[in-house]
Design a protein that fits this description.
292 residues, alpha/beta, Metallo-beta-lactamase, Chain A, five-stranded mixed beta sheet, 12 strands, 23% strand
């Protein structure tokens, strides 16, 4: 179902705001401090990034966005960077290394098939906007962790391993009890185990983030409504179940074609949605299967 259009930023904790946008159902975060503001993820084009800035200004003309954080490399979280020309863009080092190639790939896909997809909330005009957007790479990258000092509060950025992509980071606002997890968590659908995901490592990565964060009151997914820790833990367990079943099949020597079609009641998501995850696990496990 297509989410409702954004009504701008809504405060979910002390000076932490969220805006949910219909195109690709993306959550964008805004953290205010004495020395400026941080935007978490920037949407899918320069036009959409400017819409975020307009929504920030509606909260207060004196708010200065000095920093942007990309939770991971995907276009719907990074292409809006170009709109934040006076801000420093922060991301994991793999985002800087792969954004251009990933960006060109999604642009080509949308050139080939620009028709809007209702289930993702975007139109053909939105697709053209993605294709036309110049990429802006991160200005500041890190391997394991980094911080942004806003004067009266600190925003943390932490890498704990691979999951949805090779470079997912958690963004924490400890004094407000808020944890942004990007697409390591999704509320409006099950997690996207795509062609650049790491299903066998994803659950451990989430466990590390949740353990380090303690008990945040608000967990922000990349798509959908904010959730609590219990929701994040349930989804972590679901991803772990997918990994366990697929690992078992691979190590037992099941043929790839059978793994793609053989049902298993332990799988929490429809098997037809897990085809890419099956291929990823078959590729990631080093031991070749004699059945192939």
């Amino acid at each position: 179902m297509t989410p409702p259009a954004s009504r701008g930023f809504v405060e979910v904790a002390d000076r932490v705001f969220l805006a949910r946008y219909p195109q690709w159902d993306v959550q964008v975060g805004l953290v205010l401090g004495r020395d400026g503001a941080v935007v978490v993820d920037t949407r899918a084009s320069d036009v959409q990034g400017r819409e975020v800035l307009d929504d920030v200004r509606r909260l207060g003309r004196d708010i200065e966005v000095r920093h942007v954080v990309n939770t991971h490399v995907h276009f719907d979280h990074t292409f809006g960077n170009i709109a934040f020309d006076t801000a420093t863009v922060h991301a994991h080092e793999t985002v800087a290394a792969t954004l251009e190639a990933r960006g060109e790939r999604i642009k080509q896909l949308l050139r080939d098939d620009p028709a809007g997809a209702p289930e993702y909330g975007y139109t053909e005009a939105d697709a053209r906007g993605v294709v036309a957007t110049p990429l802006r790479l991160p200005d500041r990258t890190f391997a394991s962790s980094a911080t942004i000092d806003l004067g009266d509060r600190v925003v943390t950025m932490t890498y704990a391993g691979r999951g949805h992509t090779e470079g997912d980071v958690a963004v924490g606002v400890a004094d407000a009890g808020v944890l942004f997890l990007g697409d390591l968590i999704e509320e409006s659908d099950h997690p996207s185990l795509g062609e650049d995901s790491w299903p066998l490592e994803w659950a451990d990565t989430l466990t590390s983030h949740l353990t380090a964060a303690g008990e945040p009151g608000v967990v922000v997914p990349g798509h959908g409504r904010p959730v609590d820790v219990a929701f994040a833990e349930r989804q972590r367990d679901e991803v772990a179940a997918v990994a366990a079943v697929l690992r078992e099949r691979r190590l037992a020597g099941m043929a790839l074609v059978d793994a793609l079609h053989e049902p298993d009641a332990r799988l929490p998501y429809p098997l037809e949605h897990l085809g890419t995850a099956v291929h990823r696990v078959w590729a990631q496990l080093a031991t070749p299967s004699p059945a192939e």
